[in-house]
Amino acid sequence: MVPEKKNMDILYHSGTVLILLGLSFFLSGTVGLIRFPDIYTRLHALTKADNVGLGFVVSGLALQSGSWAVTAKLLLIWLLVLIASSASCHLIARSAMQKNIQPWTR
Amino acid sequence: MSWMHTTFALILLPAIVVGMFRILRGPTAADRMVTAQLFGTCGVAILLLLGTGMGNPVLLDIALVFALLAALTTMTFIRRTWHGSGKKKHGHPIP
Amino acid sequence: MSYFIFTIFDIVLVLSMVWIAWHLLGTEDIFKAVVLFISFGLLMALAWVRMRAPDVALAEAALGAGLTGPLFLSALRRMNRPRKGERRLDSDEKR
Hints:
Largest sheet of chain B: none
Oligomer: heterotrimer
Number of helices of chain A: 3
Number of strands of chain A: 0
Distance between the termini of chain B: 50 Å
Structural class of chain B: mainly alpha
Mean pLDDT of chain A: 88
Radius of gyration of chain A: 18 Å
Low-confidence stretches of chain A: none
Order of helices and strands of chain A: HHH
Helix content of chain B: over 70%
Structural class of chain A: mainly alpha
Largest interface: A-B, 48 and 48 residues
Helix content of chain A: over 70%
Order of helices and strands of chain B: HHH
Low-confidence stretches of chain B: 86-90
Strand content of chain B: under 5%
Shape of chain B: flat
Mean pLDDT of chain B: 83
Number of domains of chain A: 1
């Protein structure tokens, strides 16, 4: 009984660490969206926050949930956000190129 | 009720509020749309964390609906509002 | 501890909603107002969740953030393009 409890504790705390990593990605994505000079660089910041940040949050919550159904639903949500964000960021970048918006150079 | 997950959601909420500045003064329309997309993903993360924090697994379904419909707005924005102009210098034309 | 953090969450949520609504009603740029409306729908869904009405939050997520946004963007395109035999007086305004 005791090793089972300890095992669950380790899972819970590693999930917390993963969620904190994901939060840092979200916050840096927001800071990048505010500070970056250009639509392309802002897209770069946004995709990091979307894919990696939500991926860390989802994996941390999946470690803490302890049920396979919840884990499957969390992974489904992450997969949907992954597809949606990469497709729409690609479309926005292509449309910006077609509008002749020049990338920022120093 | 777990206060730790609610604290994480509370950390994510100012990210939305700070991102509002980019909507208020984005030079192009795409900057505003990109910020709205970040809001959608932040909202999904807040809903997931609140679902654990409030102990309510129904919130996962709301996050699922958000994730499904987040792409729709950006696709409509590209197709209806922000096409490429007549001159196609780079890339392939949008069909 | 839990109630304290939930209360702070609610206060931040309500203040940011009032701020967004203020800018949404005060702006002159229609596209900016549409994007602000989409973000307002997201925060409204979070507010319904906090008011322990997840079903209303589900409807708000589907309608407010998912469907009215694309509808408004499509309507914006119709507004900027005059119909075939119709002259608009304010057709020189550009977004």
